[in-house]
Design goal:
With about 325 residues, this protein is α/β, with parallel strands linked by helices. The protein has one domain. The chain contains eleven helices and twelve strands. The strands form four sheets. Strands 1-4-8-9 form a four-stranded parallel sheet, covered by helices on one side. A three-stranded antiparallel sheet has the order 6-5-7. Strand 11 and strand 12 form a beta hairpin. Helix 1 packs parallel to helix 8 and helix 5 packs across helix 7. It is globular and about 55 Å long.
């Protein structure tokens, strides 16, 4: 019998950001909510209590890492095509060496969000990349997750890469998304380290569960997060990266989100302790813990180098000052 785990994002707009040390943008809310779910199941596995181990989605694999139990599959729901996806004209001709073909290839390249607006990295002014706070487009993040896995660097110390089997998108023309993912992640598998692969998800259109209303003026700044086991949702204001006062769940008077980097590191240290990984407990910063996930970092380097070699552009590098902290 198969078990299906659904990851969903139902925001009308990408949350524009960026005044907090640990901003929470819409795609971070999506991924980190799932990471919290994974940490919870790791804690169940390492608890050594038979009933909790049985409920955990993890099992031992043939290497030193854990893997998903047989029959468990992951599915991603998006209520709209992710920003940065190329929009394909109905009668577009993509014959090789034509102008329209080259234009389409350029549009399928990497995109970034700068203060709520999306730009191609191939056309954006260089000074914007160095003077503004930027975020890689949701389309490109999804493509990267399909290569590196949805677990991220920290969890890679404990578990094998986890990939989504299917992506369901609310009532949209999916040709641009299908083409972009297909072209961006091709020809990378053979270069990746062991355990990593290029996972092509099945992409399909489904009814949307939310839509922008006519009286909704301006960008949406609130994001809702929650995962299995939570007693209440958390509402985060993306403009400041903190929980709003009216949120059903609040971590404390500082209103730090349960999805901030500090909270992710706290979960990491708890699991490292339960797994008796002293090497991970001895790390001195969030950044160091991520850098020690050597296979994950190698896979990321291969993926981003491949993108550049294929003409999709260079993945923008962020200043990592905010990662130099410990708890």
């Amino acid at each position: 019998m198969e078990n299906h785990i659904y990851i969903s994002k139902t925001f009308e707009e990408d949350i524009p950001i960026f005044r907090d040390s640990f901003p929470i943008v819409a795609d971070n809310i999506l991924l980190r909510s799932f990471m919290r779910f994974l940490y919870q199941h790791l804690l169940m596995f390492f608890s050594k209590e038979a009933n909790l181990v049985e409920k955990s989605i993890f099992q031992r694999s043939d290497n030193d890492l854990l893997c998903l139990k047989s029959g468990i599959k992951l599915h991603l729901y998006l209520n709209q095509v992710p920003k940065g996806t190329v929009k394909m004209p109905p009668k577009l001709s993509l014959r090789p060496h034509t102008l329209s073909s080259w234009q389409m290839i350029a549009e399928m390249g990497l995109h970034v969000s700068v203060e709520g607006k999306v730009f191609s990295v191939l056309t954006i002014a260089p000074e914007l990349l160095t003077t503004k706070v930027i975020s890689v487009s949701p389309k490109d993040k999804i493509a990267q997750w399909q290569v590196l896995g949805y677990q991220g660097a920290l969890l890679s110390h404990f578990i094998e890469p986890i990939y989504v089997q299917s992506i369901s998108v609310g009532n949209e023309d999916l040709r641009g998304m299908q083409m972009t993912l297909s072209h961006q992640i091709e020809d990378v598998t053979n270069q990746l380290p062991v355990l990593y692969s290029m996972m092509r998800p099945h992409i399909s259109a489904v009814p949307t569960v939310a839509s922008a209303s006519a009286d909704n003026v301006g960008p949406v700044t609130y994001g809702f997060n929650g995962s299995e086991g939570d007693r209440s949702i958390e509402v985060v204001d993306g403009l400041i990266g903190r929980t709003i006062v009216e949120s059903p769940f609040k971590s404390g008077p500082a209103l730090a989100s349960r999805l901030c980097k500090a909270e992710m590191l706290r979960y990491f240290k708890i699991v490292a302790n339960d797994a008796q990984r002293q090497d991970l407990l001895d790390t001195h910063s969030y950044r160091e813990a991520k850098s020690l996930a050597t296979q994950y970092q190698e896979a990321k380097s291969v993926w981003r180098t491949t993108l550049m070699q294929q003409g999709f552009g260079s993945w923008p590098e962020k200043l990592m000052v905010s990662d130099n902290f410990d708890i």
